Amino acid sequence: MASSLAWFAGSYIAAFMAWASVFRRWIDPWLRRRIGALMGVEIVWVEALRFPLRARIWGTRHAADERVETRVGFVAAGALFGAAMVPIVALSALLASTARVPEDVGHALYLMSTVLLVVFLRSVSGSASEAA
């Protein structure tokens, strides 16, 4: 049991981190360009928090109307939390479609999901801001 848990946990962590890398490199820039074009603004990563940790969120490059900024914030929250859920949904589909993963291992992987969700969000939103 312990070795299969370690193998599945390692695979799950690797999949989560690979997804974070793919999202950060290709999907995030594409989403910002597309959504920015629809909203008529340029969406960039801006610093949102400095203490107790640095965090970024989507914002507009130049000052925009408060309603536009609010919409950008809501879309950003939805996009980032939605993207963070993709590996959890994939895990759920995997567990539902196969009996190769022992039930107790599946439960342990779900428990890891909350921590990995936070790691994903931190990984995606933790770098330097782009605003001028």
Mind explaining what this structure looks like?
The protein has one domain. Helix content is 70%, strand content 10%. It has three helices and two strands, in the order αββαα. Helix 1 (2-39) packs antiparallel against helix 2 and helix 1 packs parallel to helix 3. It is elongated, with a radius of gyration of 17 Å. The mean pLDDT is 85.
Outline the secondary-structure elements.
Blueprint: H1 2-39, E1 43-49, E2 55-60, H2 66-97, H3 103-125
Structural class: mainly alpha
**What strand line-up does the widest sheet have?**
1-2
Q: How many discrete structural domains?
A: 1
Quick one: biggest sheet? Answer: 2 strands, antiparallel
- Helix content bin: over 70%
Number of helices: 3
Radius of gyration over all CA atoms, rounded: 17 Å
Poorly predicted runs of 5 or more residues: none
The tally of strands reads: 2
- Shape annotation: elongated
Report the sheet-strand fraction. 5-15%
Taken in chain order, the helices and strands follow as HEEHH
What is the straight-line distance between the termini?
52 Å
Mean pLDDT: 85
